[in-house]
Each structure stands twice: as structure tokens, then as C-alpha cells.
Design brief:
mainly alpha
């Protein structure tokens, strides 16, 4: 298949095109995409909380003049 664009060149897709394509998807596919995005967000949040907790452990070993521990970390 030939293309008007050189191979390997990424072509940005406008948001309106993505929206138009999504309108034609069945509802169960839309639900699956939303669930996947939510899972990726939750996983990313858990990774960040783990990093904060690990950093807090390191900071807790240092005799500090003030509080260096980030509040709200697990």
C-alpha cells in the first residue's frame, strides 16, 4: 500500500478525527477503553505513592532540622 506521506514520518491525528472514530464504536468497546484508561491511571498513581514512600524511608534515616517527610504517603 502506498502513502502520500514518507514512511516512518508520524502524522498527528486531530482530536476531532479521534472523536468521530470513537462515535462509531460499540458501547462495550467504549466502556473497555475507559476501564483501561482508569487502570493505567490507578497503576501510575500507585507507582508514584510507592516512590514517595521509598523516599520517605530514606529521608527518615537522615537527622533533619525540620520535617522532610511528605505527608499523605502510604
Amino acid at each position: 500500500m502506498t502513502s502520500i506521506f514518507p514512511s516512518g514520518t508520524p502524522v498527528p491525528v486531530p482530536a476531532a478525527v479521534d472523536w468521530f472514530k470513537a462515535c462509531g464504536l460499540p458501547q462495550h468497546v467504549k466502556d473497555a477503553v475507559r476501564a483501561q484508561a482508569a487502570a493505567v491511571y490507578a497503576e501510575g498513581r500507585e507507582v508514584q505513592l510507592a516512590r514517595i514512600a521509598r523516599a520517605n524511608k530514606v529521608l527518615a534515616t537522615v537527622p533533619a532540622r525540620g520535617s522532610l517527610v511528605v505527608r499523605g504517603a502510604v
